[in-house]
Amino acid sequence: MTGSYNETLSTIFSKNVRNAIQEVKGDKDKIVFTDIFSGVSIKQGDGAMNLWFLESGYNNYLATSPTGTATGFGYSLMIIYGLIKNAEETYNENVLEKH
Questions:
Q1: Is the Cβ–Cβ distance between 66 and 83 less than 8 Å?
Q2: Each residue's pLDDT tens digit in the chain (99 positions)?
Q3: What superkingdom does the record give (predicted)?
Q4: Contact 51, 7 (CB under 8 A)
Q5: How many whole angstroms separate alpha carbon 35 and alpha carbon 21?
Q6: Backbone φ, ψ for residue 7 (5° rounding)
């Protein structure tokens, strides 16, 4: 699961990770995900940009934000990036209290 200050940023990150897993090797000198993690792939039909699943496993990936949803999904690892989006929010006690 990844979280960011808005759905757009977390979805872009999720899409990049998903696309890296799905990348097909076109250049023999370039290392791709499946060179290191062979047998790991995105489950067919479950590859949305912000919510996707791995084949042969319960593991899933959700991109979310403070106003998005995370309840009920569960996670063993969450990456939070850029939750505070600017200097104004950094010094705003009300914003910080929400995070």
A1: yes
A2: 888 888 888 999 999 999 999 999 999 999 999 999 998 999 988 888 888 999 977 668 889 888 888 888 888 888 888 777 777 777 778 776 776
A3: Bacteria
A4: no
A5: 10
A6: -65, -35
Pairing mode of beta strands 60-64, 79-80: unpaired
Bridge partner residues of 2 (DSSP): 63, 79
User: What is the widest separation between alpha-carbon atoms in the chain?
Assistant: 52
Tell me the two tokens of residue 88.
């104004």
Dump the DSSP string for 7-33.
HHHHHHHHHHHHHHHHPPP-STTS--H
User: 33 near 20, Cβ under 8 Å?
Assistant: yes
With CA atoms as reference, report the closest residue to 98 among 50, 10, 85: 85
Whole-angstrom distance, CA of residue 5 vs CA of residue 17: 18
